[in-house]
Amino acid sequence: MAIARHGSGPAALLGAYASQVHPVFMLPPVATALFGAALAGAFDPRVALIAAGAAFFAVYTAHVKDGYVDFHRRGEDDDHPLTVLGCRLGLAASTVGFIACLAALAVVADPVTVALAAPMWAIGYLHAPQFDTNPVTTTLGYPVGIGLCLLTGYAAQTGGLDARPLALAAVLVTVLAGVKIVDDAQDYEYDRSIEKRTVAVVLGPARSRSLAVALLAVGLFAVVPLTITGLLPPSAPAASLAFGAVAAIAVRRDPTTATMLLVRGAYLFLAVLLVAVFFEPLAGVPLPDITAFGPYTYLATEVVFGALALALLVRAGEGALYRAARTIPALYPIAYVWDWYTLEVGVFAIPMRTGIELLGIPLEEHVFMLVVPAVVLGIHETVNPRGE
Description:
Helix content is 74%, strand content 1%.
């Protein structure tokens, strides 16, 4: 019986199986397994490659099984390079490869690593038709697999887990869940026609995009408190800034363009995190000391955030500035009394200020009561544009 559907001979056979290596989806799991090894510090390359091999075979299993189900069973795809026999042989070979990697990890690492790696194959094999029809599993399957790749790579080197790899795995799962929701929205019309329950079908395009943006924002921001608490090095937030810049452009594009941008942004995110964690370029560099402005320090920070608020409101349109100009004065009396009282009873002090007082409170506090609501309103108008 034939194995390749298009052509015969070794070249056609090799081409058919090579076609199931999808670099866009294959590279992140393999790279993340190596990233997990790098998190451990000095690592054994041989062990790292075995963990990466397990990730490769798990994802290859997913690709072959997905193609088999979508073409040969569901009739969703227009073409597939492998026959039914070819798909089954490919699944058998990838499973053998994965088991070989598990056995090698059992020898060179420990049972913890094997326990973390084993579910990767299960997620890949069950992706279709079991997981890809449920909005939760179709969204979280690939991201959770990526998280397991990171944990496997780390545990293979250290024999266990600690807070850093667990925190980073949670960040990656959250961010990639947002990317996956946008990716699934590309097939919204078709999935809806066959009653395939992706997040986009269940929530609708607009609300699913909002959920995706929220997940991206949570995951990217989480890097900041993880850095502040010392779990990540000082340069780690640069990864969030880089991916955040890409995401800010992507979330306003159509699903196909947005997915393309977000997938590449995820590569960038992982690459910058790797550099930050492995090389720690800002280690030992102190935080910028803005108290060099002396008594104008507090005022200087208000100028910066005031400029940000103005930029956001201007970008949101003339109506946003008008609405802010009405809202902030309405809020000001409450803020003024609250601020005066807390200063009067000694709740807090402001050492780095000009010393100028107006109506019983420092000048900077008057500016603060204008700037903070303006920032809030600017963000609100940006996140909830009136056009929607």
